[in-house]
Design goal:
three-stranded parallel beta sheet; TIM Barrel; 291 residues; alpha/beta; 37% helix
Length: 291
């Protein structure tokens, strides 16, 4: 299937502490003409400065992001402000991923071996300070400040590797505050495992989408049939598909999306539905004109 019009809202980029397949410049060279755009993610650094340092994106839409791990100060509203000020497009703000309490509680290592093989020696999770959005069962003051910054700077909120419970409280409050662009990050992931009923309830809210990506199949061995089942239950209009590629040894984002689409086609998801999830819904989240 042709994915040249797709926008992949989950691509890992280097230079990073972890070994990565691409820098921004080599990614542009590899992907120009093969995909419409990509959101660039790092677990460690804001990515918008990398994008701003490139003189020619060769027609690609490049979206910056910041991930609220310890490396940017955790739940740090100022990191959002600084990143968003540099971007003409909405940036993605990922809530904690590798430093989320939920993630560290369910992983022996801060960086799971299945992500990097023998290319990187990770710290043990028990040696890493964890981050939660809750305090005494309620959203913390720092979390509320982050939500305010996301709203003021017109960012896209992504739930990262928070627990299902944290994500429900966070997304519900975000919608109450008027945040209108929200992605529930790969809720099918084993370390999140959000119930489909929860996904349905959250995506019934305005501007909330569920993400499904190729890495869940390729790296985390989640059956494609289960991914397709959850897509159908939540509904095409409230899902996006992405690659979550960027690892050394794995396909490029466009190759990953093509492979993912082929697998979903085999499960009865139509080309029209794939275009909705790979092109139209990402454009809506970015506030870009629909083609």
């Amino acid at each position: 299937m042709d994915v040249t019009s797709f926008i992949d809202l989950h691509v890992h980029i280097g230079p990073e502490v972890l070994p990565r397949k691409y820098t921004v410049s080599t990614l542009i060279e590899a992907e120009a003409g093969k995909i419409a755009g990509m959101a660039l993610k790092s677990h460690f650094y804001p990515t918008i400065p990398f994008i701003r340092s490139i003189a020619d994106a060769k027609g690609l839409i490049l979206v910056g992001s910041v991930t609220l791990n310890n490396y940017v100060g955790g739940l740090n509203a100022d990191a959002i402000y600084a990143s968003a000020k540099l971007s003409s497009l909405p940036i993605i703000v990922w809530f904690p991923t590798i430093n989320a309490k939920n993630f560290l509680d369910k992983s022996k290592f801060e960086i799971p071996p299945e992500w990097v093989g023998n290319r990187f020696t990770s710290r043990l999770s028990k040696d890493v300070e964890n981050i939660t959005v809750l305090k005494e069962g309620m959203l913390s003051i720092d979390t509320l400040k982050v939500l305010q910054a996301i709203k003021e700077k017109n960012c896209i909120l992504a739930t990262g590797h928070l627990s299902a419970k944290e994500s429900v409280l966070l997304v519900t409050e975000a919608v109450k505050k008027g945040i209108s662009k929200i992605i529930i990050t790969h809720p099918i992931y084993q370390r999140i495992k959000m119930d489909v009923v929860m996904q349905q309830e959250l995506t019934a809210l305005e501007g909330v989408y569920v993400e499904h990506n190729y890495a869940m199949y390729l790296i985390d061995n989640i059956p494609i049939r289960e991914i397709a089942r959850q897509i159908r239950l939540v509904g095409i209009k409230k899902c996006i598909i992405s690659s979550d590629m960027g690892q050394i040894g794995n396909p490029s984002p466009s190759e990953g999306l093509r492979d993912f689409c082929r697998l979903l086609l085999d499960e009865g998801i139509s080309e029209e539905d794939l275009r909705m999830m790979g092109e139209i819904n990402p454009r809506r989240l970015l506030g870009l004109e629909l083609k």
